[in-house]
């Protein structure tokens, strides 16, 4: 295999479609047979992969399709599907994203503060721009504009990504007060974070629209993971 071999793929047990391992979610079973999310794919034993969003997963559970697919994937092993599996998955994906952001913060890869982010963005030094779910529209708009200017994308409408996580969740994860906007300038760090962002947004709302060759389009109406989206006039 050459050094540019494709990333490992996995097959969704519900749709039969194949996708990159980093875009699908692994399900594992505990010693007592409970089906649980394994977002880092580290649990021992056999696993099953899904690539559907929350609405489709809930429909598959209601119709018994998930139970049948898991029975085949786990070779008839005794298992229990918790009624709140979709919520557990959402929380697990949110936690892995927050943990990744925390690691990048400790490695010095995260930019905080609107003025600092805007300066880097206008200089074309922002690879990923993120906004809290409760960020003010005006604050996000100003940073989005700075990013477009720095990347010579004025007039495209491209913008940062509105996370389904509020400022409280981001502040706790990063160990800073009032984290409303954040950015990453290092492309490799941005790619690591982006993977977790995309997987969470995909599960919540379906395939995310993250085009534009940079940060992507803001998600409108995204609900905070584990709670409802809040609004504020502060940025």
- Adjacency order of strands in the biggest sheet: 6-9-7-8
Q: Helical percent range?
A: 25-40%
DSSP strand tally? 9
H/E topology pattern? EEEEEHHHEHEHEHEH
Count every helix, treating DSSP H or I runs of 4 or more residues as helices. 7
Distance between the termini: 49 Å
Mean pLDDT rating: 88
Poorly predicted regions are 210-235
Strand content: 5-15%
Which characteristics define this entry?
235 residues; 13% strand; disordered C terminus
Structure characterization notes:
This protein has 7 helices and 9 strands, in the order βββββαααβαβαβαβα. The radius of gyration is 19 Å and the shape is elongated. The model is unreliable at 210-235 (pLDDT under 50). The strands form 3 sheets. Strands 6-9-7-8 form a 4-stranded mixed sheet, with helices on both faces. Strands 4-3-5 form a 3-stranded antiparallel sheet. A two-stranded antiparallel sheet has the order 1-2. Helix 3 crosses helix 6 and helix 3 runs antiparallel to helix 7 (187-205). With 235 residues, it is of the alpha+beta class. 38% of the residues lie in helices and 13% in strands. It has helices at 54-62, 65-73, 85-106, 114-122, 137-150, 167-174, 187-205; strands spanning 9-11, 18-20, 25-29, 35-38, 48-50, 110-112, 128-131, 161-162, 181-184.
């Amino acid at each position: 295999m050459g050094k540019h071999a494709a990333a490992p793929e996995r097959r969704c047990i519900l749709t039969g479609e194949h996708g990159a391992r980093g875009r699908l979610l692994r399900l594992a079973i505990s010693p007592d047979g409970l089906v649980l999310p394994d977002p880092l794919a580290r649990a021992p034993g056999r696993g099953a992969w899904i690539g559907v969003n929350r609405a489709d997963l809930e429909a598959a559970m209601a119709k018994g399709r998930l139970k049948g697919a898991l029975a085949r994937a786990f070779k008839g092993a005794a298992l229990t599907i918790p009624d709140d599996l979709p919520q557990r998955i959402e929380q697990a994906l949110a936690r892995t994203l927050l943990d990744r952001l925390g690691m990048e913060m400790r490695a010095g890869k995260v930019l905080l503060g609107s003025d600092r982010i805007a300066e880097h963005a206008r200089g074309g030094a922002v690879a990923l721009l993120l906004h809290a779910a409760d960020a003010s529209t005006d604050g996000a708009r100003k940073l989005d504009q700075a990013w477009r200017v720095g990347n010579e994308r004025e007039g495209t409408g491209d913008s940062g990504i509105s996370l389904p996580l509020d400022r409280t969740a981001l502040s706790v994860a990063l160990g800073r007060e009032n984290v409303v906007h954040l950015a990453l300038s290092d492309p490799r760090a941005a790619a690591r974070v982006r993977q977790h962002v995309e997987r969470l947004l995909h599960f919540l709302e379906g395939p995310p629209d993250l085009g534009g060759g940079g940060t992507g389009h803001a998600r409108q109406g995204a609900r905070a993971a584990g709670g409802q989206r809040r609004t504020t006039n502060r940025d």
